[in-house]
Amino acid sequence: MTKGMVCAPQPEAVEAGALALKRGGNAVDAAMTCALVQTVVDPMMCGIAGFGTMQLYLPNKGHHGFIDFHTTAPGAATETMWEDQIKAQARDGFGFILHNRANECGYESIMTPGSLKAYYEAVQEYGTFDWKDVIQPAIEHAEDGFVIRPHVDEFWSASNIMGRMSVGDKLREIPATKEIYCDGQGETYPVGSRVKNPGMKQTLERIRDGGAEIFYSGEIAEEIAADVAAHNGLLSLNDLKNYKTVRAEPIWGEYRGDKVSCGHPPSGGVMMLEMLNILEHFDLRSMTHNSADYITIVAEAMKYATIDKDNKMGDPAFDDVPVKDFIDRQQAGHYAHMIRSGEKANVIRFGEPEESKDTTHVTVVDEAGNCVSMTHSLGMPSGVVTQGMGFMYNGCMGAFDPRPDMPHSIGSGKRRFTAMCPTIVFKSDDPYVVIGAPGGTFITMGVLQAVLNVLDFDMTMLEAVAAPRFTANSNTIDVSNRIPHFVTEELESRGYPIVRNPFSYVFAGVHGIRMPNDGKRKWDGGADPGRDGIALEV
Questions:
Q1: Which residues are annotated as catalytic?
Q2: What is the pLDDT of residues 177-194, one digit of tens each?
Q3: Helix, strand, coil: what percent of the chain each, to 5?
């Protein structure tokens, strides 16, 4: 009998989640087990000192909602702290490059983390396992060490992208980090190497016994605060003690009669709904998939959503974020009219560099119909490991706008926009597609295309996440290398700047599960071939 399915970018983590289902756990137990193992085996993509957002659909408990656990800026952060250090803005509009790199690497880049608190609260409130049982597989993986997979190696060894500091350089910057991840010559270990991290195991054991509070108000919190203070960072003990997750009901939309549930700002769910509202005005199914016509229409929808994000998105706790504007169908119809008329949206950028994509995802469904879709991350990893603790801190201060009086300016306690958009599509009242992705600001664009592939082109989930993708987070259309040149040549003839990415699988790493409810087809899962993961049914 099927107990459920787990899909994520790390095979070790997927297996741990699947075993939780086999032992009788529900989707929440499996998802949090998977997530904690992810923090060990993919330690720059996520971590207990990271952030994220999760959508929980739990029909037996009568619950459907979000746990949002974005990082918050420390109390010591100020709007003008880096005003004189600005070098450029990312081409996709997410983050800035500073001359002193303080927002990218080191203790100043760390924001108040939310991941561990969210994992713990999810298990306590909605799981069936004890916390100790959920965290134990991560402890065992930390004891054994983890083997470097191709995607991890690619991520570590990539040179700096458009001016950003490379992850490899970050791993060499802090002595405690270099000790774990580099050899005697200061080089990161190659594919197939097993990396031991005893500090991680010890920290996880302490959290197993002390729960999340030991990290936020207990001994570990005190050790974190002391280390950050000794290195002139911003994060304090009060920041950790005062951190709270945010709970919210989904924001709903519709696409061709199917209901779509997404999350509130500062995550990217409303962008997802806005793009679907625009695209519903076009008969995409009648077009050739990834033809010039198709890419033109979808890219313009991406650009309009990006413009609205740049101009209107912020932290709802600080700013009046007009959610209704993003999901307004009349506004979407106006954008669709402009696309039909051949008008091109204009995305304004300050500078050219590109954002890092340091994020991961887990999707789980179980036999009772419970669904969890969670995206979690370190943002851009800070490179900082406190001696003896083993885990890396987020580097989320790099996502803020260092210019004062802007929608995304730095502010004490403020959360910054992310494109994370764990999404569930319902046919009637039944979940049909449970999906999400890592990938920086490409997340919404990747998830959008996979959803369109399923709903408009009847693809299986694996076909949907494996199909060639493109993105338009700026006036340039970036395409994967599998999109034919004759298509991009036609786009160029229409006046679109094109950048061809050398990778065949790129622009987010979409992972999802499709659950047909017609009684004829089985569930099918899709793990993005651009990552190393799997979809595993048990």
A1: 359
A2: 999 999 988 888 999 999
A3: 40, 20, 40
